[in-house]
Amino acid sequence: MRAVTYQAPGVVSVEERPEPELLDAEDAIVRIEASGVCGSDLHIYHGRVQVEPGFTIGHEYVGTVTAAGDAVTTVAVGDRVLGCFQTACGRCWFCRRGLYQRCEHSRTFGHGATLGSLQGTQAELALVPHADLVLRRVPDGMSAEVALFAGDVMGTGFHAVDASGLRPGDTAAVMGLGPVGLCAVQVARAAGAARVYAIDSVPERLAVAESFGAQPVHLSEQDVRATIRAGTEGRGVDVCIDAVGDPRVLADAIRLTRACGSIQCVGVYAERAEVHLGLMWLKALSVRGGQANVIGHVDRVLAMMSAGVLDPTPLVTRHMKLEEAADAYGAFDRREALKIVLTP
Ligand SMILES: [Zn+2]
Ligand SMILES: [Zn+2]
User: How far is the CA of 189 from the centre of ligand 1 (A)?
Assistant: First the structure.
């Protein structure tokens, strides 16, 4: 089968790889119909996340089950399914508490040996461990390009809002309007945010956020702090979502959030960073971070997508063939598309 493999920083290629086989009774094999290219794939592409050369990448996927182990009960051969970007065992201390993102045996698709040596989904076929937890049937009438958001990007946007404690009538700010930030805007509106300030410096992204019901604020051409102050009687927003993962953004979030408000960091942090802890303390802010509990949210996210309450369709701005992966990664790296979907 053909698969997109990482080779070296800035180089991916399409290679012939052995077809996956069932290794465990809880495994399934999925024939991939569509797989997304994600911001986390760019970390690999740039060499910031180390993956062995020749490893298949990708972790957002929709396809059809072609084989299932004896212990798989919730999906069957022939079912059209979408999957979550990571796996969980369902039995460990964290899984028993529903904290699937911290499963002691979690593996992430397409991230090499550091995250469990699970081959990626930008391929014709993929092995899916713990299929009952990781896979869901695609609701009738939902397109592949929409469904694949449930197992990653929309799930992460949902988690950002859910974990922030946002309540109906609150005012929120979403900083960074990549696909996750834009999904967070939609979820915040759906969750009853009275107003959502969407902050970025790319006009096209601000326009999408506005179409989702947010108030767009240009990071450099507008005075973000003055705008938010004016709209909140000087207090600041109740909830701030950092969908970037940069200490400068977190510093801004600390200033833009009202006293006793909450900041949710879904953007990825990996290094030490300095923030104004004194200001955080004085304002009694709650700051949380971490990877999204996508497995824990996927059924709710699918229900909202199926009902049309959440709709990531405007985020899919380019379709390409698996063979064009090198061009797709180049284009995505140059920010020429919000979300590229590859089809075998
Ligand atoms: Zn992703
Ligand atoms: Zn577990």
Answer: 22
